[in-house]
Write the structure tokens for this entry.
Amino acid sequence: MNRDLARQLATVLAVIATITINALANIVRFNGLNTGEISDRFNVFFVPAGYVFSIWGVIYIGMLAFATYQALPRNRESQRLRRIGWWFVLSCVANCVWLFLWHYLQFVPTLLAMGTLLLTLIQVYVLGGVGRSTPSTAERWCVDIPMSVYLGWVSVATIANVTSVLDFVGWSGWGISPPTWAVIMLVVASALALAMATSRRDISFLLVLIWAFAGIGVKQSATPSVATAAWLATAAVGLMAAATLLTRRPPRAVA
């Protein structure tokens, strides 16, 4: 089989498997548990309201769009898709592994799976030149935007995963309270947003962080320090997004 055709087929199968396993995890309830119910076990505050997780629907649509677009015969020899294809497949594997580890309460190993998912998506993002290329309209909607949204959410999820595992192992937080750590993480995530706004001018990535931060503000309304920090972060990233839109320059073309 042609290497490019193998990559295309592997990508399609990886996306189907990822979406199916994620759906079954909550329909069948792996280990008798719901993904969100497990999250609620931890005394952490960098967690958004339940409705925020509906973003997975957007991510799945983006994954399907990507799988379909890259599978088209005319895109078989695309240099860009060649660079990112297998990294994306590996990200799908990491996604599925994380889900099984999480549902079977193997929390510490989830850090390795989540770290792999994050790093592979960063590779896709960087090697694909997202924010630094001039794709067609179809490619922007089927490659750039889906990868930006996915990476943005996984960036937030990584922070939440780390804080949950630290709570699980009984980390003292160096004497710093969990709400204060949540505020610190919001500052770190906001700094990431600023970096993406200035280096990639990536509106999609910023919108994901706005969605997540607002959800944290809603979820943590009973903890004023966290809720206030979350709403301030939401406003700050909103301003970054507005400034990016107003000053956006066409990115340079890459092969």
User: Anything to note?
Assistant: The chain has one domain: 3-247. The chain has a mean pLDDT of 94.
